[in-house]
Amino acid sequence: FGDGETSILENPMHNYIEEGLYTVNLTVVSDFGCEHAFEMDILMTNGIAFLSADTTICQNGIATLSAGSSDGSYHTYDWSIPGADDSPEQVIEGLTADYLVSVSATNEAGCVSDLAAILITVLDPITAEISPYDSICIGDVSEISLTVDGGRGDYAYEWTANGTILADDFPTLIVSPLITTEYCVTISDGCETDPVVLCTEIYVQTHPVFTSDTTEGCEGTEILFTDLTDDSDDLNRSTWYINGTVLIGNPVSYTFENAGKYTVTLDVLTSEGCMLTTTADAYIIIHPTPEPEFY
User: Fold this and answer.
1) DSSP SS3 for 248
2) 184: how many CB neighbours lie within 10 A of its CB?
3) Facing residues of 157 across strands?
4) FRET pair for 155, CA 20 to 30 Å: which of 36, 181, 219, 285?
5) Dihedral of CA 214/215/219/220: which sign?
């Protein structure tokens, strides 16, 4: 039988233990001693010789798997993939977690191979955090930083400031805006992974805001002024300049004895340490007291 075993039966059955090419020799001797020899090669194979190596894909990625036979002959393949056909190549998409695939091959003789397996590793989605809201004075700088994980790792960053695209493409942004600005970043990894968009805001304190209980009155009118810049309880942060008088606190009142137009200036030291100034020209109008005349 080509493997060291013999038989004298007319129609023997033989079991080959290992794959390989075997040369079978048959010798027939008649009752008259006539002899004839016959030789035939038999290839014993179970099918699979190779399968795609373990592979890694991104979220939303596609994995292409292929199997082949040891002798190049026709085989059908039984894949563990739901809905797969019996062809040697399969395509898998839509995976969100690692996936183990197994396959066996059957040749034309009905021989079934051992199972072969391949692991498809699916990378995690991108997760990220951005620096929280910040408040600065005009001229100060603020640092916006990112913490990114998941995906393929070769991240790309696209920043915008109030909707305008910036040239910066790093995970850290150093900014000094003149006005309150929303900064957003789109993070991708050059793969099929869904990008992540994050936003934060840098609040810029530009000028104080104040109000009064009235802006007009007669001579002798007392007017109350209130600083609305922020809700700090530090009453000494507000300094008022009214008609040559300096008043400190919030709120403050001032009595206008004489008719005229008065400018009000407010300096504010904010809770963030910003020194801000605003001036309202001719903000208060004081009318003269009428003098009666008799005829």
Assistant:
1) strand
2) 17
3) 187
4) 181
5) positive
